[in-house]
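Appendix B. Chain record.
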Amino acid sequence: MPDMANVCLNALVQKGFEIAAIIPPPSSNPTSSAFVNYAKSMNLEVFEYDGNPNTKEMTDKIASKNADIGVICSFDKLLGDDFLKTTKHGYINCHPSLLPMYRGANPYFHIINNGEKTSGVTLHFADEHFDTGNIIAQKGIILNEKETIGTLFNRSNFIIADMLCEVLDKFQQTGKIDSKPQEKGEFIKAPKVSNVTKLDLKKTCQEIDNLVRASNPFYSAYLNFRGAIIKIFCLDYKIEKHDIDCGIITKVDKNTLEISTQDGYIYPKCLQCGSWGIFDTQSFINVFRPNIGEKIN
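Structure tokens predicted for this chain:
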């Protein structure tokens, strides 16, 4: 599973761009050590730190490199004006949505959960707010019918890396980067999400499927069954009118587990019960022997 910062860093190294230094997440961040090791494996200088990157010590250290421009990927802390002035031309931020839509920490999840048919990526100049700076480049993405947060995450990262190389290559040739202000107004936000989300079978099949795909594989979308948590990683569904309560097992056979929802039925295809292993439908049925009429909600 590629991370945006790793993918972009690798692309810049492979394209031969001169990299003055790397600023990783704070050392307290669980992703920091892996990224630091990755950068050092490429013989790059790394400015490690604790807590806040906006200190005078850090900004002086970065400014001493006299770099032309900075790149921000997967960084969740606001950078102050002094930090943003540590390079000659500012910082390019890489954001996985078509700004100004879906500003925030997790566009991937919200784009899929909201049932969007398209997404995109944006390169923009960083300012002292999240995702509001002038737009440099954008590219749209058509979502697949079964797009998950994992597949969209990966696709977006590689598109961003290619765009970034194109923009920086043009910058090396011309010494400038064109940009335009973002549209003004209110737009859908993309805040952080919970790592665990309970599915609501009183919602439509489409809404349930959206949430499952928006969660797979980074988060857990779950139901309760016999007092245990059942994580659902993928499912099929059928829209069909019925008068059955939501969350009732209505069919069980060799390869089918049918569960009622507001407007039809869902058919889980990959499940995990508690801390047990991950099962396909047939294996889950063989192990747990669910019964028609049981509740799973």
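Further analysis of this model is presented in Appendix C.
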